Amino acid sequence: MSQITVSNFLGRELLLPQDRLYDAEQGLWAQPGEGGNWALGLAEPAVLMAGGVRQVEPLVEEGETVAAGQLVVLVLTGKLKYVQAPLAGVISFPAELEQAAGRAAQDPYGTALFSIAAAKGDSGPLANAAVFAKALSDSDGSRNPSGATGAVSPTCKAVYQGIGGQRLGEGGEA
Q1: pTM over cut 0.85
Q2: Which of 54, 117, 131 shows the shortest CA–CA distance to 85?
Q3: Secondary structure E strands in 53-124
Q4: What whole-number distance in Å separates Cα of residue 131 and Cα of residue 40?
Q5: What's the pLDDT tens digit per position in 33-86?
Q6: Domain 3-168, CATH 2.40.50.100 — does that match?
Q7: Residue 25, SS3?
């Protein structure tokens, strides 16, 4: 399988499989299957940025027809991540969805969170691996090539520098 390499993403080298498409905004991969059926999961950069995956909860019923942009899954990480369907179609979930959370960190490209049977030929806003890699180059993960934790985003740096610049007087007052 052909892959694109992304260097220094949170201190790691990532390999993006080229046999699928990506939703850069949500950090999803989508792999086309037979008859317009797409398997979808979290791409490795999204799993790394989230700090892992704790739980996955469906927000729609198995077999429901969903619209592109509709919220379909809640992923519990260090935060709540609501995932929208990038394609319209009939949604289904793997029988072992409860175990998908643990496997998503170990094997993000082998762990589908849901599938959508979309209209044949519909790939919606999904882009190839090269476009996804380019989007990653302008992300927080690429701006932190050493993988440092704490105070690495511009907002965090500003807050920590502001705190560090304060002079506390006796009794803890500024």
Answers
A1: no
A2: 117
A3: 55-58, 65-66, 71-76, 80-84, 89-92, 114-118
A4: 18
A5: 888 899 999 999 999 888 889 999 999 999 999 999 999 999 998 888 999 999
A6: yes
A7: coil
